[in-house]
Specification:
With 449 residues, this protein is of the alpha/beta class. 35% of the residues lie in helices and 15% in strands. The chain is built from 16 helices and 17 strands. The chain has helices at 44-47, 82-98, 112-121, 134-142, 162-167, 191-196, 202-207, 213-223, 235-244, 263-276, 291-298, 355-365, 373-382, 386-395, 416-422, 427-445, and strands at residues 25-28, 52-53, 58-61, 65-71, 100-106, 129-133, 169-170, 173-174, 186-190, 229-232, 251-252, 257-258, 302-307, 322-325, 338-340, 344-347, 399-401. The strands form six sheets. The protein has a four-stranded mixed sheet with strand order 5-4-6-16, sandwiched between helices. A four-stranded mixed sheet has the order 10-13-9-14. A three-stranded antiparallel sheet has the order 1-3-2, covered by helices on one side. The radius of gyration is 24 Å and the shape is globular.
């Protein structure tokens, strides 16, 4: 879940070549003594070595092969909790089962794509399992740099459920692997500031179905006092959240039609513009549109800011009480939604040896028996109160996924929402000026040209 939202820069890294003797064998149950296809006969000593049997009836001995799992955060399981202890033990079980060594590595978010690309082009994939988000995945899929699960496993028999398969599908095939749903996207708010201002707590309004744009605006106006502001945020995120929480979307991913000028979307952008210009309740950023809004909230300079649950981990020691709620709903929305324009998971890079076994190793490492319990445990660890945990849990059932950035739109709107913020263009003018180019990008990405 930890992610650096807006970066894709490059450098190169290579993994050590596996020695020929670690190539591994695969045999079916009942044929343990027969050599795998295209493999020389084993001598008696090798044939006598024990092999572990997998759930599908096959046995594997990968000869001590290193299975490299790479992400931008350390995925090494840690003990100390029930689930953590089981996860640590699971790694050892898998290592023994397949005769492999599981190795976790960390690569900076902004270096992932080019490091992976360079290693694939060199014929030495840097990872057997690579953590990517949907934006990264989509581009790599277009270049055939990732292996689709459809080509190596029977999708009807794997443990990734239909929802998660759908969340990992690109061009009609599944590339992104997830064991559970852990997406979020809402609002952090300063409970202490709300209480001191005599305002009703947003969670109470949320529970009553009354946490709306108007309720947020009313609070933001009362919290804005000169040095303190009601809100902080980046125009790109505030624009997107205003669109989605009003029942709109950036792109119809079924048809490839850009829908930024729909009534729902335009009303959202008009509301966002009013926060900056008419009501002046958003604290101006000072050059860093990603870090400044978060910093302002942590420093107690704003009452509310957009954010994801993973950001909660760095806010345990702030000198005030805070909470976490859905982003408020607009007048055209029926319910609260969890805006998901990017998700993360694991992928298998092109060139990885025996990818079908690598998938099985990944599947065997997951704690399927706990379902979402690991996610709930994480919520309890990083969030400060039951109200926030309740909200984060509810968010899992209200996901509205729209991977519009993956259609070559990641940077298409830079400057567009900014011009609305600066007041140089109205929302209608800004969208009209960018829609043609943005639609052309989508068409090209989808092969419509």
């Amino acid at each position: 879940m930890r992610r650096g939202k807006f970066a894709f820069l490059i450098m190169a890294i290579f993994v050590l070549m596996l020695s020929a003797c670690s190539g591994g064998t695969a045999t079916t149950k009942g044929d343990v003594d027969k050599p795998a296809e295209n493999e020389p006969e084993k001598n008696d000593e090798t044939a006598a070595e024990p092999e572990e049997e997998t759930d599908d009836g096959a046995t594997y001995d990968l000869g001590g092969r290193v299975i490299r799992i790479v992400n931008h955060w350390d995925m090494t399981p840690t003990g100390g909790t029930e689930i953590g202890d089981i996860a640590v033990a699971r790694v050892k079980e898998v290592e023994e089962k397949y005769n492999v060594k599981i190795e976790y590595s960390v690569v900076p978010w902004e270096e992932k794509v080019n490091q992976l690309t360079a290693s694939i082009l060199a014929g030495e994939p840097m990872a057997d399992l690579m953590g990517l988000d949907t934006n990264m995945t989509a581009g790599l899929v277009q270049q055939d740099y990732l292996i689709p699960l459809d080509d190596i496993v029977d999708l009807s028999s794997i443990k990734i459920n239909d929802l998660l398969q759908q969340m990992g599908t690109f061009n009609g095939k599944v590339y992104l692997m997830k064991p559970d749903v852990n997406e979020s996207g809402g609002m952090f708010y300063n409970k202490t500031m709300f209480e001191q201002a005599g305002l009703q707590d947003p969670f109470e309004l949320q529970e009553a179905g009354e946490w709306t744009w108007n309720a947020m605006l009313d609070a933001a106006k009362k919290l804005t006092t000169g040095t303190v502001y009601g809100l902080s945020g980046d125009a790109n995120l505030l624009g997107e959240y205003s669109i989605v929480t009003n029942g709109g979307q950036v792109l119809d991913t079924d048809t490839g039609e850009l829908t930024l000028d729909s009534p729902e979307a335009m009303e959202g952008l008009e509301f966002m513009a009013s926060l900056f210009h008419e009501h002046k309740v958003v604290k101006p950023n000072e050059g860093d549109t990603w870090n400044n809004p978060r910093q302002y909230f942590t420093e107690g300079l704003v009452g509310m800011t957009q954010g994801w649950v993973w950001e909660a981990d760095g806010r345990k020691d702030v000198p005030f009480e805070w909470g976490y709620v859905f982003w408020p709903k607009g007048p055209k929305a029926d319910d609260y939604v969890t805006n998901v324009s990017s998700a993360e998971g694991m992928t298998i890079p092109s060139g990885v040896e025996q990818p079908e076994i690598v998938y099985q190793i990944w599947e065997d490492l997951q704690l399927w028996e706990f379902g979402q319990e690991g996610v709930y445990e994480w919520f309890e660890d990083v969030l400060p109160n039951e109200e926030s945990i309740t909200t984060a849990t509810l968010m899992l059932d209200k996901i509205k996924a729209n991977y519009w950035p993956a259609y070559d739109l990641y940077d298409a709107f830079w400057g567009t929402y900014g011009s609305i913020l600066e007041g140089t263009e109205s929302p209608a003018q800004a969208i009209a000026s960018v829609k043609g180019e943005a639609q052309a990008r989508v068409d090209k990405f989808m092969g419509k040209e």
